[in-house]
Write a structure and sequence with these properties.
By secondary structure, the chain is of the alpha/beta class. It has one domain. α11 packs antiparallel against α12.
Length: 305
């Protein structure tokens, strides 16, 4: 459930994309930054894999990514997190339909367990509100519970700040309302039970989430193959919804990008899990005739005395 929750903090579905099949050997270059060229493009665009929650000290942008942002025309995220009005407008769609709450979906014992856990972890919103949210969205407020750091951030936020500092327009490949609406296709009961399962595992491991820690480590090493492997090992309970949640979205993005590339140079930043696999964005772009090549994305950390 943690993989779901982390993804939904800024972009509801991205991390689940690591469940895709067929990572190619050329993706073993251990980089999150990819150059898109060829197919008649006059200027290249760049594709970057994000993660939605990371210790602040580990969240840094490489010189290569900063250069791509500085020289591009526009920056596209999965959703435009800089659009405050859109974020406010989507709040109503975060709730379950028909005034459903977690109390309607869980046994009394499980409900009390979830309530106690949320109140102990002190999420951003009171439980009285969160229990009305679609359970996957409620889980997003628990993102980073096992991270051992004083403060956390999202790569999307850092990219947004960098883009704004360079006066670049920021747009979304999707709307937040669209993402929130997709969750109505996953039974609320299933979502609620996955939330209980996550809490049980968290408690049984004494507050540790070793699989999540491995995922963070793979991301920091920019190892897309390992990220995919870890996600495929995790049963997130929504495998039967992969086409709706993942593959269709990837295809929609690539079709949209095809119409944008000829007119402008873009930096596209989406969840790292969306990149690998036969139905991942890298492969789909190549099938459309684009050349997608790895770019060195190493970050040099300079320690100050």
């Amino acid at each position: 459930m943690k993989r779901i929750g982390v993804a939904f903090l800024y972009s509801i579905l991205a991390a689940l994309a690591c469940a895709q099949d067929g990572v190619k050997k050329e993706n073993e270059n251990n980089t999150l930054l990819w150059k898109i060229s060829g197919n008649g493009l006059e200027k290249p665009s760049y594709l970057f894999g994000t993660i939605h929650m990371l210790c602040a000290e580990d969240a840094m942008l490489s010189d290569s990514l900063k250069m791509a942002i500085r020289t591009c025309d526009e920056v596209y995220l999965e959703v435009d997190i800089s659009n405050i009005f859109e974020m406010i407008g989507v709040l109503g769609q975060m709730k379950m339909r028909d005034d459903t709450t977690l109390a309607d979906l869980l046994s009394k014992e499980d409900y009390e367990k979830v309530k106690e856990f949320f109140e102990e972890k002190s999420p951003l919103l009171p439980f009285s509100i969160l229990e009305t949210f679609k359970p996957i969205l409620a889980a997003s407020t628990l993102a980073g519970s096992s991270l051992d750091c004083e403060s956390m951030t999202a790569m999307e936020q850092m990219i947004t700040e960098e883009a704004e500092s360079k006066s670049k327009e920021i747009k979304g490949l999707e709307t937040m309302a669209y993402q929130a609406g997709i969750l109505d296709s996953i039974p609320y009961k299933l979502q609620a039970l996955e939330l209980v399962k996550y809490i049980d595992n968290f408690k049984n491991n004494k507050g540790e989430d070793k699989e999540f820690d491995e995922l963070i480590d793979a991301y920091k090493k920019q190892d897309l193959v390992k990220l995919e492997e870890l996600m495929k090992k995790s049963d997130v309970g929504v495998n039967s919804y992969t086409e709706l949640l993942l593959y269709r979205r990837n295809r929609n993005w690539v079709q949209k990008l095809k119409t944008l590339f000829p007119e402008r140079s873009l930096v596209i930043a989406v969840g790292a899990g969306h990149l690998p696999g036969d139905q991942g964005v890298i492969s789909l772009l190549r099938k459309e005739g684009f050349k997608v090549t790895p770019v060195n994305n190493k970050v040099s950390k300079i320690k100050t005395l």
